[in-house]
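Re: folding output
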Amino acid sequence: MSWAGPEDIYLSTSLASYLDKKILVLLRDGRKLLGTLRSFDQFANAVLEGSCERVIVGDLYCDIPLGLYVIRGENVVLIGEMDMDIEELPPHMTRVSSVEIRSAQKAEREASDLKGTMKRRMDFLDMD
């Protein structure tokens, strides 16, 4: 039986290989957090330093600064390392302020609610 050596750290399922690196964390509620992983435990609880929440609506995005952030492991869906050698977002994306992204989110939510209401009305009229 052979043991993993220092060169095999990237084959590990542990978050240890992500320590002190910029990561992306996808949460159960759909939020996307970016930051530097400073600590974690066996339950996937994590501490991010210099973190921000990335909000994307269509071709608009905004990074809302959060600072030092503690994430409870049961809310984590995915954790991945950010590749610093490539561009984070496609070139067609436009950075906007937090006020603009919130109004875009509200408009998107209202459009989705309207679509759901219209579908329910059409389903009611369906007499099959």
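--- second protein (sequence, then structure) ---
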Amino acid sequence: MDHSDWLLISKGGRFIAFGYLNGSCLEVTHENAEENFMKPTLSAWRKKAVCNILINRTGLSQVRRVILVLSGKGGVGKSTITTELALAFLHAGKKVGILDVDLCGPSIPRMLRVCRPDVHQCDSGWVPVYADAQQNLALMSIGFLLEHPDEAVVWRGPKKTALIGQFVSDVAWGELDILLVDTPPGTSDEHLAVLENLRKHRVDGAVLVTTPQAVSTGDVRREITFCKKLGVRILGLIENMSGFVCPHCSECSNIFSKGGGEELAKLTGSEFLGSVPLDPQLTQSLEEGTDFLQAFPESATFSSINTIANTLLSRIEDD
């Protein structure tokens, strides 16, 4: 063994380094990392690697706000809501990031029409993929790492947990006003891994997405219990697919019923942020990867999404 053999263990925001540096065990903080590890006995590449790990351990250091998008039910449109909120925040002048931790169904890249680019690395970690030329909308998704877009992710829990840990700590997000975390359905390993890895960083809260039907609100009620057990602040509920907007006359028909999300918010003491209807123009925009909010500013759906985004901004900026 040589001096490059070592092990880092995170403990309470500090790092315990077990290695062969003079046979000693060192407790390392961001402040003393360089002092302890920039030793002439270490190879040049090891010096750089160790100091990058210790000094730039979390890529969230310049992220002001983190919002989780949750739902106990699949198919309610979490990724749709995440995408449209990100675009609304972007149009409000914010620098926004989306972390897609729906590992088995990554749809954010398609919704924003970001092809599968190569994910590069810098000294601080993985470089996010940008959806705009101004680099104000940053993305990270497993969809960028798969060799083929149709490839299935057949992983057990520990491998998923490890990748989520890398997404949270090793992506060089840079300065962001808001990071939205798009999660899979349920209250499983992925959710626990996200919260565990975000424990060192402030999480401003969660937005819960439901559809009006009782079968959906029942699952979202369990998600509310999950948030309360883990101490996650609930910023509010959004009722998605709340009625259908006719593309010809713009009349809204309640084909899936209406009001279930608002009723759930009242029963659980949560804030109801608003309703988003099924809108063929929104669906087409997501399929084509175009900006619905920019293309249809006169639509009622635009007004709904914009109102929800402004309410969320007011809530987190008043803290």
